[in-house]
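Quick note —
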Amino acid sequence: MTGLALVTGGTGFVGAHVVRELLRRGLSVRCLVRPGSDRRNIKGLAVETAEGDLLRPETWDPALSGVRWLFHVAADYRLWVRDAAHMRRVNVEGTVRFLQAAWKAGVEKMVYTSSVAALGCPAGNGEVMDESNPADPGEIHGAYKFSKYLAEREVLDLARQGCPVVIVNPSAPIGPLDVKPTPTGKIIVDFLNRRMPAYLDTGLNFAAVEDVAAGHGLALERGRAGERYILGGTNLTLQEAFGILSRFSGIASPRVRIPYFVAWAAGAASIAWASLTGGTPRVPLDGVRVAKYKMFFSSAKAERELGYRPGDTRQAFLRAVRWFVENGYVRKPLPLPVAMEPVAS
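Predicted structure written out below.
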């Protein structure tokens, strides 16, 4: 494939890796960036930039001019917000209107970055889910998850109208360039900073962010419009993930398991304190609610239809540890050097 690809969210964690994947594939890349945004993740890359905002349609035409392919990766990704309505305007209304504008501008194919958060979570804890699991809106907790659920419904409706959009659903990506960091990256950072004295009996599907980015490229090349593809890696309990981090860092993995009701109470107290002080909750209650179930997923459809091949997730943990240490996210020296031996297959 050739031509100009526009990436929204290209300065973010997943988006920056998508930009690198597209450049590797030989595409020309333009990034839609907000004025004054942190552009460290694309510094030195051979990309164009167009200043714009998903809430300012008047800025879209220059960004979309001459674009053949669109990767809409941008989203407001936080587990706690004071203004849920603003998050919905960005993640739902901004997404739909921007894709409509791209369609009208003649973009040939689009890849929309949704999330496994938009998929259903069955009551059976630990059941492996796929694209066929219907989401029950009454069981979706948190402004972010609900916004992604609503956005995906709207994007699927656009596809039914003929919009050439493919949906990808990343799980919990990990790796370098997680500058914020994301909620998943914060788990790693908190562990490395020895702020994880205990663990919840929960689990996630962790994926190398580089694999997720490669999946976006495959979705452009082989994805079917109106279809959803989970881009995941390895299903791990939180305790298993901490075991991997312990091996790479030399920090002891927590041995105490917190009952869910204790974590819920801590989350409620953290929200109340943040409301009083104007700060950010240390333990977002929506994150605790999500952790009630093991969020395990299968990428079998993406592997079958796209040729998606996730690599060794343990190596992704290692790359994340190295990056966070090298970029100053870890306050104390690690007991072991960061230049650790690779994990054997």
